Amino acid sequence: MKRFALMFTAIVLVSISIGWYSSEHAAYFRINKSLQIFGELFRQLSNDYVDEIDPQEFVQAGIDGMLKHLDPYTVYIDDEDHDEVDIITTGVYGGLGFTTGLLDSNVTIVGIAEGSPAERAGLRVGDKIYKIDSTIVLKTIGNELRRYTRGKVGAQIVMQILREGRKDTLRFDLVRQEVTLKNVTYSGVVGENLGNVKRQDIGYIRLERFTYGAGAEVQEAISSLRRQQPDLKGIVLDLRDNPGGLLDAANAVSEMFVPSSSLIVSTRGRSADSEHRYFSRRSPVEPDVPLAVLINEHSASASEIVAGAVQDLDRGVLVGERSFGKGLVQTITTLPFNASLKMTTAKYYTPSGRCIQKIDYTQRRQGIIKSAPDTSKIYRTFNGRIVRESNGITPDSAVSVKTISPLLTELLSRNLVFSFANEYAGKRSTLPEDFTVTKQVFDEFSSYVRRKTVSAGVSLNPAARKIEELEAALKTQNASQTALKQLASVKTQLAAEYFREIDQQRSTMNGVLFEEILERFHPRSKVIAASLGSDIQVQAAVALLHNPTRYATILAKKR
């Protein structure tokens, strides 16, 4: 109860201190009144409710209720999850270096950090975590699992793993170490095939997050590219699927390319004097090299700050798909007992003045669903090109990835590609250096899907599921066997049609299978490198950088 007493005392003290201002400021009075009511309600329920209440859980429920009333980016981080703050800000934490997800209700490794204890020990993407030390964790989720995997550096951990193709569990002895998540996960020289000639003169940088040191990592990547190819014809900065991170990191990355003293971004909060303007404080490392920035619907926050600065300053061309549309800034503040609050404190604006925030959470709380701001308002880039305030940032050169059919989308959503890669890798200790998805591999995949769907009695074709619903309804009405047989025949034909479509989509599926299988044997950087040649958006960016006339036309000053 000591913690309860401290919390209640804090509430009373805050109420008393605010009371000094209540006579002068109506806002302070409302806060004071609310805190007094909350404190008295909390005290009475904790003392007199029919069942015993855990004060800490009770307060947590109140915090959760308050924050649900706000935007999803304002979150409370308690002392047990405080390493999340370290990951957000520094990209460093004490742990083993893997991420997990629940697949088929089992804790499954879905990502492994390069150079981490998990990678060195030989853990693989797709492994199911059965036991950590003496605790079975196969069904454990989220915060509960982190209690075993993260913590004091140097602690020894014994893990037992279930791996496809192996009858027995596999034992791994690991030691928690300081894991650093890289911002730049790959950089290298790429090109395009032109007849019998392959031009390898475009630098490529994959930036996956914006933690402390992102700017320095991008600068080192540029230096490495220059050592590999002194005569670079352009640079592709890949921000696809980058959810963002630190505002300072976004500024540091932008400074690599934009002119010195350029406005990169500005932020404005609730008060009239809350505006902050962030300018480039250094000379750019690459002031003139043609630049293409790749974005997609999962490029958000700090990624959009960089993309917006590059576009508004006409420093480069944006290629890909419209970005996510998160124009909100969060600040992390400390709370008592080693807790933290990550709170939305401002909106950010690109150099032209645009705020690209997609959702108005104030209106959403009032039951009004409005996803896009007024797109009629025109803004202009440095060269006078028209840009608009819309759902995210619109690329200068729109290049969509190949769309796959709804049936294949369902195939992926059911994790059948992921689980096939597990089975394929589980039968092998290594993968040939020249591995490709041959017809034999693809046929294995097709057979695997048939086997899994038949054994589970699952129809992947939505039309077939409708037939099953009709079949069930007819059975309740004692329909004739002839009618039921006809329905079964149609369902079989639909299933056959589904697998014919899989075969028709083979070229697309080969790329997906290739990356999934490769990820079981090689680090993330090698998987990225191997996929660039078949990446439609990367190749479109490379072709654009190889076409100076088109590049200049896109950025040309409009009269």
Residue-averaged pLDDT, rounded?
86
The strands making up the biggest β-sheet line up spatially as 10-11-12-15-16-21
The CATH superfamily of the largest domain appears as 2-enoyl-CoA Hydratase, Chain A, domain 1
Distance between the termini: 71 Å
Summarize the structure.
The chain is an alpha+beta fold.
Could you walk me through the main structural features you see in this protein, from its secondary elements to its overall organization?
The strands form six sheets. This protein has a six-stranded mixed sheet with strand order 10-11-12-15-16-21, with helices on both faces. The chain folds into four domains: 50 residues; 89 residues, Roll (Pdz3 Domain); 218 residues, 2-enoyl-CoA Hydratase, Chain A, domain 1 (Alpha-Beta Complex); 132 residues, no CATH class. The protein is built from 19 helices and 21 strands. Helix 16 runs antiparallel to helix 17. With 559 residues, the chain is of the alpha+beta class.
Give the secondary structure arrangement, pairings included.
Blueprint: H1 2-19, H2 26-48, H3 55-68, E1 75-77, H4 83-89, E2 92-95, E3 98-103, E4 106-112, H5 117-121, E5 128-132, E6 135-136, H6 142-149, E7 156-162, E8 170-175, E9 177-180, E10 184-194, E11 197-207, H7 214-228, E12 234-238, H8 247-254, E13 263-268, E14 276-279, E15 291-295, H9 302-312, E16 317-320, E17 328-335, E18 339-349, H10 361-365, E19 378-380, E20 386-388, E21 397-398, H11 406-413, H12 416-426, H13 439-456, H14 462-476, H15 481-504, H16 506-519, H17 524-531, H18 536-545, H19 548-555
Parallel strand pairs: 11-12, 12-15, 15-16, 16-21
Antiparallel strand pairs: 1-18, 2-9, 3-4, 5-6, 5-7, 7-8, 10-11, 13-14, 13-18, 17-18, 19-20
Helix pairs in contact: 1-2, 7-8, 8-9, 12-16, 14-15, 16-17
